[in-house]
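Consider the tokenized backbone below.
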């Protein structure tokens, strides 16, 4: 495939570049819903939510989990900036299930008068756990 038909995907976390690859397409979760990017895409800046990033490499569909952050897309490159990232082989399903259960218990135990930010934090933890379990199920 010619380079003009590929996108460079980079996923960066606070500790460095977590993933860098050339791919045919990318689908990512934004706060407005899932969106797709193909080579030649118009410039886009969006808020990223926890979820599954799907990207096509040599006809194979690959998955990664990302946490909240930002995405910048253009005709040749997609950059995701996130605090959290995992590949399927990095997911310990039992540990993530325990994290999910603990987060759901925290959500159930929240005082109705607790600050909204407390609930949003727990919901982000739940979404992050669901994203990792989703990619592990496809490994």
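A designed sequence for it:
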């Amino acid at each position: 495939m010619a380079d003009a038909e590929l996108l460079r995907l980079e996923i960066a976390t606070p500790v460095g570049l977590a993933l860098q690859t050339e791919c045919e397409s990318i689908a990512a979760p934004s706060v407005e819903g899932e969106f797709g990017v193909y080579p030649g895409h118009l410039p886009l800046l969006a808020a990223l939510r926890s979820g599954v990033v799907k990207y096509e490499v040599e006809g194979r569909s690959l998955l990664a989990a990302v946490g909240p952050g930002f995405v910048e897309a253009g005709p040749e490159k997609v950059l995701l900036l996130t605090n959290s990232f995992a590949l399927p082989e990095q997911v310990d399903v039992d540990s993530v299930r325990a994290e999910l259960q603990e987060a759901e218990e925290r959500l159930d135990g929240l005082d109705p008068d607790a600050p909204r930010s407390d609930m949003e934090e727990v919901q982000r933890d739940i979404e992050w756990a669901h994203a990792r379990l989703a990619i592990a199920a496809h490994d």
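The chain has a mean pLDDT of 93.
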